[in-house]
Amino acid sequence: MNPKNRWKQLALTTQILFCGLVGFAQNSSGESSIHKVLQQRVDEVFDSLVKIRRDFHVYPELSGQEKRTSKKIEAYLLSLGFEVKTNVGGYGVVGILKGDKQGRQIAWRADIDAMPSDIPDVVDFKSKTEGVRHICGHDVHTTVGLGIANVLASQKENLKGTVYFIFQPSEENYQGAKAMIDDGLFDWMKPEEIYALHVTAFPAGFIAVRSQNPFSHTNHVKVSFKASNDNASRINFTKKIIGSFQNVEPDGPFWNLANLGDPQLGLSSPETIYKNYFTIPTDFVVKETENELLISTAVNSSNQKQLDSFLISLRKKLTESAYADDLISVTYSYEKATVMNDELLTQKTSKIIADIYGASKVIPLYGTVPGDIGDDFAYFQNTIPGVYFLLGGSDFERGVIADPHSPNFAVDEGCIKTGVQFFSSMIMERLNH
Ligand SMILES: [Zn+2]
Ligand SMILES: [Zn+2]
Question: What is the residue range of the signal peptide feature (predicted)?
Fold first, then answer.
């Protein structure tokens, strides 16, 4: 079965499962009326949002070069009457929406940069920046952020508290979030919660979320020996030891990422194969100098504790080996922050959206996506508890598959409506209750 059908089947299975259990739980209290008003507003602005998204798509900008994009964002936020801060950690922009009533503070983050790609675009509104394309969907993220800003601004008189809209540059190189924080972002704003989304291959109309980490953890382990005239045996021994920690069959179904969307094996199944794994996703790199032998590789796990205990076990095995006298160090040379969703907020926000838009629309994930992928939203979450949602963006009937970074990446723009509706309602509920 190809990935396309797997994801489609997953969506249908989940829909049937949850419809059967819960039904479409439209909120019947007076609360639903405010969300009806929000939905009407989304309908009114939807066409203009699609135009904005296409404009970003036609003029994509690489990490660190988001000058035009940030100008457009600034102009839009100013047109809504927001206080706007620009040039935060590069081309970062922050729009501040103050509700008419006193209350708490929440932040919404959207990333705005595009990627290098020479592969021709699959849509009519093609990129006019040579070699650059929005194939990670950040044009959609930026647009959803602006859409939520617009919709919540229209309810300013009913809004308790403050919403900060953070438009972050340089996500693709994992630098923008840190740069905004280093530039003092959280010195002048103190949100109690922070949220973000990423478009994914789930079908448009759905969101998916996992408590804790939706993506795996990746570190790089580095083993250093004194150089000897028998480097080869040290290299073989170290590779063998590190390889022995991998707990996934080399030719098993784990490696076929089409299975991520499989209803039994995939992320949305409690029986998923994408949990409790430890893998060596890359080849070993060996460097030999006059004095030193360096052996390094990436290690990938669904669980940070496994990575911590791996390093301790590896060090122990090497210090107890025949090569112990020549061992200099066993360290992680690079650790990347991993998106880590706050458990309580994941539960609360999933329930809010399920209550208003239907339980079938929120796909709970039990597994974590393997491989060296992530989002530097993680650095915001190091400071502020928050949740990172996956926004379905595919339309399988039309062959539109929103698989980020894939050459044929495309988006069903209906997901902009879903994103703006669900998360405008969610922020409103989190602030007002
Ligand atoms: Zn990306
Ligand atoms: Zn991305």
Answer: none
